[in-house]
Amino acid sequence: MLFGDHLILLRGGGDLATGVAYRLHKCGFPVIVTELPRPLVVRRRVSLATAVLEGEITVEDLRGVRVASAADAWALAMTGAIPVLPSPEWPPAGDARRPAALVDARMAKRNIDTAIDQAPLVIALGPGFVAGVDCHAVIETNRGHRLGRVIWRGPAEPNTGTPGIVGGKGRERVLRAPVAGVVAWQKEIGDRVREGEPLGDVAGQTIAAPFDGIVRGLIAPGTAVPAALKIGDIDPRDDAGAPFTISEKALAIGGGVLEAVLSWLGQEAERHAR
Fold first, then answer.
1. CATH number of 8-160+247-273
2. CATH for 171-236?
3. By the number of CB atoms within 10 A of the CB, which of 6, 188, 229, 269 ranks highest?
């Protein structure tokens, strides 16, 4: 690997984090992903987190593999695959090694436990972080003119609470749990659906398609969810391949992370050359 000595840790393996992993991996950086033991990702076919549930997943030509320990993760990362470690914490107990860069890609819209001293370079995605305080750099995640930009001082745009517009649809394209309970689906990711067609249920309460479209994402069946949690996504565009390819938003954010990492490496090289 071109940058084999500069391992990047991604906290979170959702669809946006996977776009980041894709950009970094393509440019020769070894990558480790950490995820919840029971991931809550919706766009499962383009999320490395799915490896936690299925053991392995291939997203485009990126191969993610579930591993059982930090030692296994470090070893696998050097082979070209992406290790996915079910561990909400980093570093895991008993492993003191530090990555060259840490990326908080959990998209919690708030800072859960990320600190600027956790790695030589700490990057965070989206709102909830202040560059120069919580981390070294923040990547803008809000759709629009600033998407993917690197912020070295200050915060990203605040959380709007409103999903971005895709194919003319915004808030209505997101499926949310009507009540707390266990999710069961009648449809699969990639299925075409008609407005009003039953997609599944939560605790017996039916979830119907809000409009004609393609099922872009569904949380894993059998997942226990709280009321109002995002559990699915319908795409109004007639693009059968969209649920199975990394989105333009994820790739733009990934490009921002790559820019931040390469900028930092350049600055480090100049500093050591003095």
1. 3.40.50
2. 2.40.50.100
3. 6
